[in-house]
Every structure is written in structure tokens, then in C-alpha cells.
Specification:
Helices cover 37% and strands 25% of the residues. The chain contains 6 helices and 8 strands; from the N terminus they run βαβββααβαββαβα. Strands 1, 2, 3, 4, 5 and 6 form a 6-stranded mixed β-sheet that branches. A two-stranded antiparallel ribbon has the order 7-8. A hairpin with a 2-residue loop joins strand 3 and strand 4 (62-63). Helix 1 crosses helix 6. 34% of the residues are buried.
Length: 175
């Protein structure tokens, strides 16, 4: 029997979309019916789905404001539906910051909202200085310098652990 699953995401540079598509592929492979939506064009209801997954990237220490607004507005529906949330951020490139319980952005996020997802995950994103605007590149280089990460403006590293994404997809299937 097929489960109807909605995945809602917010992305800045495309990595959260890439991760959402991978989760979608895992769930479809397991026999589910999955619909993927950007926060920019979702006009449905959480209650239209048996499971609802939300993913958001971080930029300058914050999750997407529209995602936070969506969660706050739809908290009751989310709590009445099997749900999950995943965060995509570069701090998660460090193993000691790669879990929801140890990732400072995820912890901060939970304090900003009055909602606790049934399942959660944190994935490392991608660092591609060439894609950023001049200002973003400088800001991200400063942040990376402060956190002892790569600062070379030609750096292009995908930190995402795809096996971990697959495992999360299986976990969501079994939720």
C-alpha cells in the first residue's frame, strides 16, 4: 500500500533541493507516492499527506524565514501528521556537529519554534565559493576562517554524506 508523502524544502544554493530529491527517490523506491515542493510555490495542506517532511538550509546562521513561518502556522496539522525536519548546513561537516543534538543551528532552531519534529536529521551542505555573490563569498570565507574551514575562493567541496541521506530516507519510510 502506497503512502502519500509531501516534502517541502527551502534552499539557497541548491543543496537542500538535491538532498530532498535523494530522499524522494529513496521513498519512491520503497513504493511511496511522493510530491516535492519549494516553500516558494507550496499552496497545499499538510493534512493532504500521511507523512510530511520539511528541509531547510542555513544562511548566516538562520533557517529560511518562510519555513519557520510555515511551521508556526501549520503546527497543529504537523503534529497530527507523521513528520520530519532536516537541516542543511556547513557546520555539520564536522562530525561533532553532525547530529540534531549537537548541531548549534538545529538546537537554536528548536528554541525559535514551538514544534518538535517526530524525526530529524542534520546534513552537511556544499561549499562552492564560485557560486556566491561577492558579499556572500566574503562573509562565508570569514565564517569558514573562524571555524577553521577552507577559505580559498576556488574551493568547491560537497560535504553531504549521501549514505546518511539514504539512511534517513529509509527511516522516514519506516516512520
Amino acid at each position: 500500500m502506497s503512502t502519500k508523502i509531501g516534502i517541502l524544502y527551502a534552499t539557497v544554493d541548491g543543496q537542500t533541493l538535491k538532498i530532498s530529491n535523494k530522499i524522494k527517490a529513496v521513498l519512491i523506491e520503497k513504493g511511496n507516492e511522493v510530491e516535492l515542493f519549494s516553500i516558494e510555490n507550496f499552496d497545499g495542506k499538510v493534512s493532504d499527506y500521511e507523512k510530511f517532511i520539511i528541509g531547510s538550509s542555513i544562511r548566516y546562521g538562520k533557517h529560511n524565514a518562510k519555513i519557520i513561518e510555515f511551521i508556526n502556522k501549520n503546527k497543529k496539522q504537523l503534529n497530527n501528521t507523521k513528520n520530519a525536519f532536516f537541516s542543511v548546513n556547513l557546520v555539520a561537516r564536522k562530525p561533532e556537529r553532525a547530529l540534531p543534538e549537537t548541531n548549534p543551528y538545529f538546537i537554536k532552531f528548536l528554541h525559535e519554534i514551538d514544534w518538535i519534529p517526530f524525526q530529524s536529521a542534520v546534513f552537511a551542505g556544499k561549499l562552492d565559493y564560485q557560486k556566491y555573490t561577492f558579499t556572500d563569498r566574503l562573509m562565508i570565507q570569514l565564517i569558514m576562517w573562524m571555524t577553521k574551514g577552507p577559505t580559498n575562493s576556488k574551493t568547491n567541496i560537497e560535504y553531504t554524506d549521501w549514505d546518511k541521506v539514504d539512511q534517513f530516507g529509509v527511516l522516514l519510510n519506516n516512520m
